Input
Amino acid sequence: MIRIAHLYYDLMNLYGDNGNLKALQNQLNNQDIKCKIEFLTIGDNFDFSKYDLIYMGPGTDYNQKMVLKDIIKYKNAIKKAVDEHKFFLITGNAIDLFGKYILEDKKKIKTLNIFDFYSVNESFRLVDEVVAKSKNSEKFILGFQNQRSTMHNLSEPLFEIIKGCGSSPNSKTEGFKYNNFLGTYLIGPLLVRNPYLLKELTRKLILTTDPNFKFKPFHLTLEQKAYDSYIENYYSELSKK
Output
């Protein structure tokens, strides 16, 4: 049984990014692994020790601030879960909540202070299609940006930018990684658009609970065709380099 917590499912769920969890649940089921997703929001009690993966997606600026007021009380529990190598997948502007602060109109809004990066709410938006690569793979990562905030002082970026913007306008990197914490502004949903990432995360989750698990072939034929077609139609020049 893989247990997943979908944090603030009703407040932090723009752009259909909950599709990340639907894709992950489908792959787990195809491996005959039961997957239970618990939908948690303001007023619920979060016990991070119960879950194998914690997920939170993007929200409006207003909802982000509402969530910050609630999630701040879980700071120590979240830090403990990160240090214990719990899996986190955080997409869109939800990632801003895990840094030192958000700078807005020259004022610092204190956030969870789990990591050393900080975010800035800009007067502009970064809207772009992004092609990136992860540190340990040559496969392209596809994603879409539609963000007001930018991320700074990143110690361990998640992706290297090949085409498009990074976490800030002059950055060649995107997102943040620490232990099994994965945070990115990229939406899409990310796991739906990138079958390699979906397969990798599925494998890691299962092996955490059963190191000797015997995997069946992954059912990603349609997802792979969509990915390959997109690369061929829009980024063929990159694949030839």
Notes: Helices lie at 19-30, 61-71, 75-83, 190-193, 195-209, 221-234, 236-239. The chain has a mean pLDDT of 94.
